[in-house]
Amino acid sequence: MEPDPPLVAPHLRPARTFDAACATVVEYLSRFVPMGMWAVTRIVDGRQVLLSVDSPAYGLPPGTELPYATSLCRTMVAGETPRIAPDVGQVPQYAAAAVAARPFVVNAYVGTPIVRPDGALFGTVCGFDPDRQPESLHAHRPLLDLLSSMLSAVLEADTQATAAARDLELARREADTDALTGLLNRRGWDRFLRVEERRFRRFGDPACVVVMDLDHLKTVNDTRGHDAGDDYIRRAATALSLCVRGGDVLARLGGDEFGMLAVGATVEQTAQLVERMEQSLSAAGVSGSFGHAPYSVVAGLPGAWQAADEAMYEQKRRRRAAGTPA
């Protein structure tokens, strides 16, 4: 019998998840190429989200969102400016972006893109410093290219692994189905959100949570009976299902409350989706109050759910104040 291979110490094992790889890259760069800030960022919906960051000079925590339009990374990604600028004042586009970055002082910049397998931009590895750096900073370009290529490879592998896990979770939905509507029930919804929370924190993907509360269900139950109330709920579920896009998750959370996770949707796209849902409900002879809020790395899905729920109740209050039954 061959002896078991020796175990490798945990800190020497390769990172298998994208967030762990990002943390390793930032830690390595901070140690061997000191800058005022090193970060791995995600570019999404006009925002540059700091997924992993070490920021002794600027104090920016993970989850910070910065405008991409005025970022130094934007022109670097476009190929208009060099990846390494020991003195940003020598590069007009960087100098202008540094002015826009105030009150943060940026006098040196390093950046390289993280690219998906299809060539689309995911984000960047970037470094900033309030002081000008020596020209020897250029010598680190091969290291940056190597690290960004490594992150692209880990991103691809982790994306495939999490997609497979997500498909498995979707396949388990039959065990967590609401008997009245055929939608996911509360138990399935809570478990699905736990899985999605880990995925979103890993990649910083955009998403929005939508909360919907049916109007008039109690009146229907009281005046026409619970069978009519059940039919009212089923019609609402059918109408909402017609608006769900591929990858979105719709659930009946109990009573007259529904929830939806709009995967990959921006706030603007979700607002349009809610408008279609309202129209679909109206065509089915049903009405409801809606609230929606975006996912963020800082607040997570629980924070988005709470904000969406508050927005839904605020809509109810406004409608009642205007004399509209809700």
UniProtKB/TrEMBL annotation:
CDD domains: GGDEF. It comes from the Bacteria. Pfam families: GGDEF. SUPFAM superfamilies: GAF domain-like, Nucleotide cyclase. PROSITE patterns: GGDEF. InterPro entries: Diguanylate_Cyclase, GAF, GAF-like_dom_sf, GGDEF_dom, Nucleotide_cyclase, Rev_trsase/Diguanyl_cyclase. Residues 205-326 form the GGDEF domain. GO terms for molecular function: diguanylate cyclase activity. NCBIfam families: GGDEF. This is Sensor domain-containing diguanylate cyclase.
